[in-house]
Every structure is written in C-alpha cells, then in structure tokens.
Amino acid sequence: MGSSNTSCIKPEAIISNPTQDDVVQLMVSNQTEDLMESRQYLVEMHKEQPPRILLSGESQVTTLVIDLDETLIHSIFDFTNQCETQIKLPVTQQTADFQVDFDLNYITVYLCVRNYARQFIEDLSSLYEIVIWTASPYDYAKPIIEYLGIMDKLAAVLYRTECSIMDDQMYKDLDNLGRDKNVIIVDNNPQCYKKHPQNGINIVDFEGKQDNALETLSKYLKEFAAKGYKMDTLVHKWPLK
C-alpha cells in the first residue's frame, strides 16, 4: 500500500511509523485512548497461538493463496489522478493510521489495479482453490476486494488477524490452512512465506506502473495445473524476478 505499506511488517510498526510522528501526534490529542487500545489489541492478537485451521472442508485441487497489496493492487493515500478509482474507508481502529485529512470522517484510498488482475482470478478459479490472504486489516482490504468484483471466485479471504508472528515479523503460516503441503502462495514479499519458501512464487512489486506479470504468471500456473507438476518443482520452474 503506497506510503503505508503493511505487507508482512513488524507489529509495532503498524501504528508507530517514524516518518509520521507529526501526524500521529495530531491523532493522539483526540484519540489517545483509542490508539492505545488499538496498539494493545494488535500486540495481543498477534502473539504466538496454537495452530488453527483457517479453511473449512477439503479441496480436490491445489490451493492458490494470493497476496493483495503490491501483488494485485497498489493504493495511495495522498491525492493522485494516476489511479483507477477512489474508495472511501470508514475511520476505525484498523484504519486510523492511514488517515491524512483529520477534518473528514472517512479515508480516501486512490486505487491502482494491476493489469490482468481480475482476469488472473477468473482464469485460475476453475483450476485452483483461490484464497486472497493479505497482511492488511479487514476494514481496509474488504472494500478493495469487493471493488475488484472477484468475491464469487474466492474460496476464502484471510486478513491480518489470520497472520502469525515469527522473529518479530508478520507472516502467513500455510500450515494453518489445513491443506497439507498442496498450497502455492503468490506474494511480492518473500518474508510473508518465509516458513514455506518451497511453496512460494515471488512476483515483482506492483507500484502503479502497469506490467504483464500477472498474465505471464497465469500462463505458468495453467501449465502447472495441466501437467501436474510436483510442488518441489514450483520455485525452480518459475522465472523469479
């Protein structure tokens, strides 16, 4: 996400951003109690917990986990006319750190959608069990995913609350999906799947400048499914960038 990237970051950085000290001080004057509660909530929420199964039932096909920010979309909180649309988010504990204009009771997100993002999901939904998993909070990510119009193609959407913490870094623990090892994760940040590097496809960051990365990846994943490649060939066959 633009200047407030939450892609698998340290939990203490979710609210305290050293480059935004002045902005945070303005918030504290009116929202000290809320911010303290939010900080404590996030710390408690991401303490190591026993494994939990995040997906129900079973899947007869490979599960494809796809990141949101800098993989499918790029968001900016300062004004720009270079993006596809604007989305207004409610100001909540989860989104307060993104607030730029404190005179408004909503937060404007300028959203850039990566070329082929919607078609990518459409193409692969008949071949894979598709799961969007973002390290961003629900109140930010849900409206964006709804805007993309892909909800009916998804088996599940997982948010920051479903992420885990290891070595003070937030990551996505594929063991918690309940899908054995038959899982592929597509993410621009290898830290997000550092526990399962053999399952990961690293995609180049999307920061607003259009590319053909998703179209290329779609062709590869179609071939992977059609030819029945084994998971241990996944990383070796994908042209990492």
UniProtKB/TrEMBL annotation:
Species of origin: Hexamita inflata
Function description: Essential component of the TIM23 complex, a complex that mediates the translocation of transit peptide-containing proteins across the mitochondrial inner membrane.
Subunit structure: Component of the TIM23 complex.
Family statement: Belongs to the TIM50 family.
Pfam families listed in its UniProt record: NIF
InterPro entries linked to this entry: FCP1_dom, HAD-like_sf, HAD_sf, TIM50
GO CC terms of this entry: TIM23 mitochondrial import inner membrane translocase complex
Region forming the signal peptide: none
Membrane topology term: Single-pass membrane protein
UniProt-annotated location(s): Mitochondrion inner membrane
FCP1 homology domain location: 57-224
Superkingdom of origin: Eukaryota
BP GO annotations: protein transport
Protein name as it appears in the record: Mitochondrial import inner membrane translocase subunit TIM50
Keywords linked to the UniProt accession: Mitochondrion, Protein transport, Transit peptide, Translocation, Transport
